[in-house]
């Protein structure tokens, strides 16, 4: 009925004509109902966890080209060459005797040599953006940064293991092999001050270069994680030992052992923190013993001499450090 028609009815009839809503509808047939989706399909699959790129393969990213590590190494070599020329000029002008030979222990030699090797640190940090177009964090750890809390943790561990091994080696050479103990070096306070300021920095620079950029370049060229890690460890250890000379076979083997241990902890921790801590503790321990007892008292500082084989006792401390670092692998990865 229309609105005009309803106005002509009596009031009681208008009440009966009020709108009562739509008529009830029937339930559709079960055959016409849509099928329910399986419960398993309704639940979205959980994405698989993304695995971090191994530290040594950090260069094998989307921008990987074989010549990029070559360009980076050439840049590093160029900057180190400039530093070497300046070092030689300083040696001629001042007579510091600055070279990679650990003796004689003089504060001038420690300062100039330490600053020369420390150039490797900014050189590597510059090589990453210049040659690879990314920040240098990939050359420090899997986390893209230097994890400082791990540095202190591994420093204490290295002191308790490798540092103790070096001390026992010197003790065995002096007490059991009657190695000479000439006494403290000249200008002992200045030698200790210069050494403590430059030796840890030099150790960090060597690790960033050898166990960092160089090892990553070698592993990147090989492209396979395990094979690349092994070859990079051998190359870096031999090169690092050769830089310090081959006059003393036990000392040379000890440096190779240090390099292999540093590469091992880099592989298990995914960064350079443990390697830097190990190298710095070993270098400082040798410095303190050589400056306090005399250079001739420490096997490895001078070629030959009784008890030279005791330099290899420190290898046991290195092996213990690597074993304990491997046990903390899970915690280290989580900290990154």
What does the model show?
- The protein is an all-alpha fold and 336 residues long.
- Helix 4 (67-94) packs antiparallel against helix 5 (107-118) and helix 7 (148-176) packs parallel to helix 11 (273-293).
- The chain has one domain (55-331).
- The chain has helices spanning 3-6, 11-16, 39-42, 67-94, 107-118, 120-132, 148-176, 188-222, 225-243, 249-269, 273-293, 314-327, 329-335.
Report the biggest beta sheet as strand number plus sense, adding barrel if it closes: none
Instruction: Please write the string of helix (H) and strand (E) elements.
Output: HHHHHHHHHHHHH
Cα radius of gyration in angstroms = 34 Å
Q: What's the total number of strands?
A: 0
* SS content category: mainly alpha
Q: Gap between N and C termini, in Å?
A: 79 Å
Shape: globular
Number of helices: 13
Note poorly predicted spans: none
Mean pLDDT: 84
Percentage of residues in helical conformation: 55-70%
Count the domains: 1
Please state roughly what percent of the residues sit in beta strands, choosing from under 5%, 5-15%, 15-25%, 25-35%, 35-45% or over 45%. under 5%
């Amino acid at each position: 009925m229309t609105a005009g028609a309803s106005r002509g009815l009596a009031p009681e009839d208008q009440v009966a004509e009020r709108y009562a809503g739509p008529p009830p509808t029937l339930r559709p047939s079960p055959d016409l109902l849509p099928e329910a989706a399986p419960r398993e399909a309704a639940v979205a699959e959980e994405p698989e966890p993304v695995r971090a790129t191994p530290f040594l393969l950090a260069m094998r990213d989307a921008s990987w080209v074989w010549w990029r590590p070559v360009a980076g190494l050439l840049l590093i070599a160029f900057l180190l060459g400039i530093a070497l020329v300046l070092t030689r000029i300083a040696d001629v002008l001042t007579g510091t005797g600055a070279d990679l030979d650990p003796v004689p222990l003089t504060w001038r030699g420690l300062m100039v040599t330490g600053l020369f090797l420390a150039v490797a640190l900014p050189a590597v940090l510059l090589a990453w953006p210049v040659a690879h177009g990314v920040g240098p964090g990939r050359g420090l750890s899997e986390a893209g940064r230097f994890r400082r809390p791990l540095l202190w943790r591994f420093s204490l561990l290295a002191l308790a293991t490798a540092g103790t091994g070096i001390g026992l080696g010197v003790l065995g050479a002096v007490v059991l092999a009657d190695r000479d103990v000439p006494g403290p070096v000249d200008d002992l306070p200045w030698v200790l001050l210069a050494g403590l300021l430059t030796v840890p920095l030099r150790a960090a620079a060597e690790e960033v270069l050898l166990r960092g950029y160089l090892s990553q370049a070698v592993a990147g060229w090989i492209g396979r994680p395990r094979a690349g890690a092994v070859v990079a460890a051998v190359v870096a250890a031999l090169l690092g030992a050769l830089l310090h000379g081959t006059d003393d076979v036990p000392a040379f083997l000890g440096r190779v052992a240090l390099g292999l241990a540093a590469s091992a902890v880099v592989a298990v921790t995914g960064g350079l923190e443990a390697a830097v801590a190990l190298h710095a503790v070993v270098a400082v321990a040798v410095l303190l013993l050589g400056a306090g007892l005399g250079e001739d008292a420490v096997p490895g500082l001078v070629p030959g001499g009784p008890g030279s084989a005791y330099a290899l006792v420190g290898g046991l401390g290195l092996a213990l450090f690597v074993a304990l670092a491997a046990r903390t692998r899970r915690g280290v990865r989580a900290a990154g």
